Amino acid sequence: MTDRSYLPYQSARDFQDRGMAKWAGFFLSEHSSALTRKAAEPRRLAELSLRDKLQLLSQAYSQQIPICITILDQAECSSMQGTVFHLDSRQVLLQEKDRCRAISLSQILSIQAKGGTDDGSVFV
Fold first, then answer.
1. What's the rounded Cα separation, in Å, for the pair 42 and 102?
2. Residue 107's closest CA among 50, 61, 56, 68?
């Protein structure tokens, strides 16, 4: 308790500070909105450099290795599987079962080999 006996007014000497209780509503709303924002943001994986993406995709293209690509599309992470049909400096065409999908290299978060060797080799 704080000694306020030096104050001239009785009301000031008897004042009971609510401490952190007066800030609790503010902190709770800020905290909950921050948590909501964080939940809405996709969890970023270790993002590859453009050079690494091109190297891994060209390797998958030349060897026709089936791959799984994780992409960031409209604030959502999604994965797709297929083989590299075409590759250039801006995008990759991924041949899925019955269609070909264009993916911008800037959207790619990770690349994994599917099938291939049994030692679990993975592109990351």
1. 21
2. 50
* 55: its two tokens: 């190297």
100 token code pair: 């070909």
Of the candidates 81, 77, 62, the one whose C-alpha atom is nearest the C-alpha of residue 108 is: 77
Kind and range of the H or E element at 111? Answer: strand 108-113
Q: Please list the residues that pair with 68 across neighbouring strands.
A: 81, 112
pLDDT at 106 over 50: yes
Q: Provide DSSP, 39-105.
A: HHSPPPP-PPPHHHHHHHHHHHHHHT--EEEEEEETTEEEEEEEEEEEE-SSEEEEE-SS-EEEEEG
Q: How far apart are CA 62 and CA 122, in angstroms?
A: 17
Task: Give 50-74 pLDDT, tens digit per residue.
Answer: 999 999 999 999 999 999 998 888 8
DSSP 8-class letter at 112: E
pLDDT of amino acid 8: 86
Q: Are 45 and 10 in contact (CB under 8 A)?
A: no
Whether the model clears a pTM of 0.90, i.e. scores above it, the answer is: no
